[in-house]
Amino acid sequence: MKGSPSRAVVGNVLVVALLAVLAWLLLRLHLQEDWWLAAPLASHWRWAAGTLTAYAALCALLWWRGRTRDDVGSAAGEAPTLLVWASQTGFAQQLSERSAEVLRAAGVPVRVRGLHQVDAALLQQTTRVLLIASTTGEGDPPDHTLPFLRRVMPQDMALPQLHYGVLALGDRSYGHFCAFGHQLDAWLRQHGAHPLFDTVEVDNADPAALRHWQQLLGQLGGNATELPDWAPAQYQPWQLQARRQENPGSPGAATWRVSLVPADGVLPAWQAGDVAEIGPQHSPVEVDAWLATHARDGAAMVEEQPLRDWLARSHLPVLPDAVPADDMALVATLKPLPHREYSIASMPGEGHVLLLLRRLLRPDGTPGLGSGWLCDYAALGGRINLRFRGNPNFHPPAPDAPLILIGNGTGIAGLRAHLRARVDLGAGRNWLLFGERTAAHDFYFKEDLQRWQRDGMIARLDTVFSRDGGEHRYVQDRLLAQLDTLRQWVRDGATILVCGSLQGMAPAVDAVIEQALGREGKEALIVAGRYRRDVY
């Protein structure tokens, strides 16, 4: 993997080198013949010893700053997440430091280690690990990982308590793309560990893949962090065409259907499974309040844009001393708001991007960043910043293969796109299992799904609503009751796509699939690309 070494590491090395040169020059100065003859011997040795002591103290300070930092468990008793890097050039280590920052900002305790520092005992006492692994050359692991490869991987150990995620770094111009990341993923699966999500592949530091990883970190932290994106997206202008609440009266949070069209009228192509990245904004009321508090003119132009627009897209400075007096200087200090990801529920032939999103509330009752913008603040016909992220791990199988779609909540959005694509191709061997709270309020896309079932485009439609009572409460319960059917569809060549909750539904469904097929059978599906997940 080609990449940049950690700036912190490089900086420390350069400082140490400069200090070494300085110490050497001072000693040469003090040891010059004239000074040596003129000064008392004791004075010379005191000077030299003092210089070396100062040099040693500064080296110790650098070591202290760069030492491994372990967080204690959270107040709720949550054990630290183990964040492991495997790096040849330092890029994976740098990403691990950024990942730790995201998790800590969300209140998640973190323990950071290089893979060479990880042993069997550490893995067996850990419940959640995130690995950031580079691949070098033609599929080789980084050099420092050799102790782990020789001492840990050959061991026969059980890790049923461990949940993990992998960020695999690679370069498609080399053979065996992301091979070491996939090797770690396969090894963990074989020893009973449970993946939190499918391995995230990064091609030559691809910004979109890194933004996706950062989004997953935020989800693991309970969406409690709104740190700026590591590599901000280059958005395109779209327009908010329509929106409506889909579940008025539901016992759950409000869910909204949002339709977007390109501002230039030219609809780009995308595939089922792809994701829309939205650049959110603050509400106009919030921006105007900030401008009034700091006595600034929102209409003032900075680089051909009103100051109000710059502020709407950025984290608003909080402290008075963090607000420069000059508008240009202020804009230079602003950090852009992070993007929000949403599964695309429509296909290009429908003429618009269709989203289904839950309106989330912060602890203080204010709307969440992305859902607040799309559901509450953005004006109909107004500009929405959007870009697509290809999601190849969740693209559809061949149309002649059977397809099993499993999801809950707003996860139905990504599954609807797959069904729409299959309908367009005339592929009717589809089985949908969907779960929500109530049939009366939360049966999203009900008309579409029932029409496709009547037309023979959905062979099986199993719905479960947890608040309505009945034999099965959750989608995994309905799947468990259909093990023989699941096995038959898999024997017939079916691909399984799961979309929805990372915390509850996805691991429960994964356990049912393993019960039906066995661990080896499930892993064979994963390797063949016939079991894929898009969970959040």
Characterize the structure shown:
With 536 residues, the protein is α/β, with parallel strands linked by helices. 38% of the residues lie in helices and 20% in strands. The protein is built from 18 helices and 19 strands. The strands form 4 sheets. Strands 1, 2, 3, 4, 5 and 6 form a 6-stranded parallel beta sheet that branches. It has a 6-stranded antiparallel beta sheet with strand order 12-9-14-7-8-13. It is globular.
Beta-strand share of residues: 15-25%
Distance between the termini: 27 Å
Largest beta sheet, briefly?
A: 6 strands, parallel
Number of helices: 18
Poorly predicted residue ranges: 1-16, 23-39, 58-67
What is the CA-atom radius of gyration, in angstroms?
27 Å
State the shape. globular
Mean pLDDT value: 86
Multimerization status: single chain
Work out the number of β strands.
19
The SS-based structural class is alpha/beta
Helix content: 25-40%
Could you name the key traits of this structure?
18 helices, 6-stranded antiparallel β-sheet, globular, 6-stranded parallel β-sheet, 536 residues, alpha/beta
